[in-house]
Amino acid sequence: MIVVERKEPKGLRALYLLDVLAGLFTTLKHVLRNVARPWKMPVVYYPEESKPLPPATRGRHRLMRRRDGSPRCTACMLCATNCPAECIHILAGESKDPAIEKVPERFDIDLLRCVFCGYCAEACPLDAIRMDVPDVLIARYRRRDFVWTKEMLLNHDNEEHVAGYNPPRPVQWTHGPLARP
């Protein structure tokens, strides 16, 4: 076992004053450089211009439908359970179809609480919720406009794959005989 002795900082180093001054100097250097040469700053004049989003961008949520038009969700609560922000609220109800145990009577997502982590889409065993619609900008001004209901989440043309978004990713084995060292 190797024992490494740590030297205790003395003088100005004990107050971390030199480190704070070095950080302030770096900030001042960047500010002065940007003020002196503003044309070299990377600026996008949003909303007139926009940057292209990368292929794996998580967009807005959507609920998928079955072939008969009913929601694919069975109100299993896995998405709400996995959500770290607790922004998904589901009220389960009885299904008219005997093959399906329950359906969501209410399915609300509070987008002001959502962190767009994608855990809800990963947890869903039926692929009922997806996050692949690329219009990430949601320009609303009232709180109630940020709570999306089941009807709003089902309001899309239900395409199987949004072109250019969420491309198939290669499987990465983390353990077992196929794992790379």
User: Any idea of the CATH topology of the domain at 60-154?
Assistant: Alpha-Beta Plaits
Describe the largest sheet.
3 strands, antiparallel
Overall pLDDT, averaged? 82
Strand order of the largest sheet: 2-3-5
End-to-end C-alpha gap: 26 Å
Number of strands: 5
The CATH class of the domain at 60-154 turns out to be Alpha Beta
Task: Summarize the helix and strand pattern as letters.
Answer: HEHEEHEEH
Strand content: 5-15%
Number of helices: 4
What general outline do the C-alpha atoms trace? elongated
Tell me the helix content.
Answer: 10-25%
Which secondary-structure class do the elements indicate?
alpha+beta
Judging by the overall fold, what is the CATH architecture of the domain at 60-154? 2-Layer Sandwich
Radius of gyration: 25 Å
Which spans of ≥5 residues are poorly predicted at pLDDT below 50? Answer: 160-167
Structure notes:
The chain has helices spanning 17-36, 78-82, 119-123, 150-154; strands at residues 60-63, 88-94, 102-110, 129-133, 147-148. With 181 residues, it is an alpha+beta fold. Among the domains are: 13-43; 60-154, 2-Layer Sandwich (Alpha-Beta Plaits), CATH 3.30.70. The strands form 2 sheets. Strands 2-3-5 form a 3-stranded antiparallel β-sheet. It has a two-stranded antiparallel sheet with strand order 1-4. The two termini are 26 Å apart. Residues 160-167 have low confidence and may be disordered.
